[in-house]
Amino acid sequence: MNQILVTGGAGYIGSHTCVVLAEAGYGVTILDNLCNSRAEVLARLQMLCPTKLEFIKGDIRDPVLLEQVFKARQYQAVIHFAGLKAVGESTVQPLAYYENNVCGTLALLKAMQHHGPKSIVFSSSATVYGDPHAVPIKEDFPTSATNPYGRTKLMIEEILADLHRADTGWSIARLRYFNPVGAHESGLIGEDPLGVPNNLMPYVAQVAAQRRPYLNVWGNDYDTPDGTGIRDYIHVLDLAKGHLSALRYLEQHSELITLNLGTGRGYSVLEMVAEFERACGLKIPCRMGPRRKGDIAQCFADPTRSWELLNWRATRGLAQMCKDAWHWQCSEKLRNE
Ligand code: NAD
Ligand code: UFG
Which one from 12, 149, 203, 233 is the annotated catalytic residue? Predict the structure, then answer.
């Protein structure tokens, strides 16, 4: 069985990708230090996977551990999710972000160069487009960053490009995610942010669950039809399947590819709230607030290249995203009672 090493596989996107990989017949080993995920998730994740998952608790910045991991087993490829991802936190603790994301990726790549596979799928982000001059966003649009988190993604993208330039034996996918939401339909895995959620959907779900009194809508004076920000929300399982497609592509091509993973459709904050209200049958109280620093009006993908190259496209709509997010929220509540 072809074995894939999934760094950060206990996290939100990683866990869903592990299910998709296991269902497709790959063996999966997770390497995660659990700095933003919980060990309990692993047992539930195992229930969704037809084959036994391997779990290594450890840090991608640990070269000794990485050497052991790659010597102990032959991996076909690495899917690299491990990283810190909170934009606001990155402005307060930039060094932690450069250390974890950039140095961690360097340590991983060095270990792969010496002992591991030369094939990697990397979690990049639509944040690398900065404030785009137009929408939908194509992969060849200019890149920029407005915060340390975004800069780590840009730096890693550059490191990967240099690596491929130096040695074309590497197979590299830089996947730029738009806004992943939703959860596995079982309610067993999903997004479980620690503390106050930064992102819209987990916040809306917590308001619906009466864990928070109302949603702050950050700005209703943007140049959009209802004045609120527009984003490209993509179901996390569609995103996970994009990784499987990229992995399969890299099996056949030792190339560097850069792809948008989005749906190609943008929805406003108020449209998302209305859809979530339909899914949960409850009213989500909202309060209009000022614009959030660093936010942009509109961000949605042109996913044409992913379709042409990978034959991949998102299939789940907004109703499914909200239904699954709500089911996950209710299931978590029951488990915590
Ligand atoms: P997550 O925090 O749920 O998962 C990341 C996992 O990596 C966690 O389980 C964490 O414990 C682990 N981790 C972090 N640093 C590590 C280290 N040094 N060694 C080992 N494990 C480590 O985040 P997610 O939402 O699943 O995001 C996965 C990746 O996708 C991240 O790189 C993130 O930057 C990127 N991304 C996420 C989004 C989003 O909106 N969720 C959007 C674009 C890109
Ligand atoms: N929003 C609110 N209230 C909230 C949270 C968000 O009104 O409590 C609004 C935002 O202003 C924005 C929209 O909802 O208009 C989406 O905000 P998110 O924080 O959910 O998502 P972002 O597009 O700002 O950023 C996310 C990740 C980034 C990533 C980017 C693209 O946080 O790390 O998607 O993938 F880079």
Answer: 149
**Distance in Å, CA 12 to ligand 1 centroid:** 7
pLDDT for position 37:
96
Count of domains for the chain = 1
Is residue 311, in this structure, part of any structural domain at all?
no
The residues, ordered by sequence, that sit 6+ positions from 72 with a Cβ below 8 Å of its Cβ are none
Cα–Cα distance for residue pair 236/74, rounded to 1 Å = 28
Distance between first and last Cα of the chain: 40
- Locate 53 and state its tokens: 């998952």
Strands (E), 49-109: 54-57, 77-80
pLDDT tens-digit map of 90-140: 999 999 999 999 999 999 999 999 998 999 999 999 999 999 999 999 999
Encoding tokens for residue 282? Answer: 């409850």
Question: What number does the ligand 2 atom closest to the CA of 197 have?
Answer: 8
- Does the annotation mark 203 as catalytic? no
Determine the Cα–Cα distance for residues 275 and 267; give it in Å rounded to an integer: 10
What's the gap in Å between 146 CA and the centre of ligand 1?
A: 19
DSSP SS3 for 253: coil
**Structural domain span for residue 120:** 3-182+234-262
Give the pTM: 0.98
Supply the residue whose CA is at minimum distance from atom 7 of ligand 2. 217
Q: Whose CA is nearest to atom 35 of ligand 2?
A: 178
Q: Is residue 314 part of a domain?
A: no
**pLDDT tens-digit map of 199-257:** 999 999 999 999 999 999 999 999 999 999 999 999 999 999 999 999 999 999 999 99
Whether 246 and 259 have beta carbons less than 8 Å apart is answered as: yes
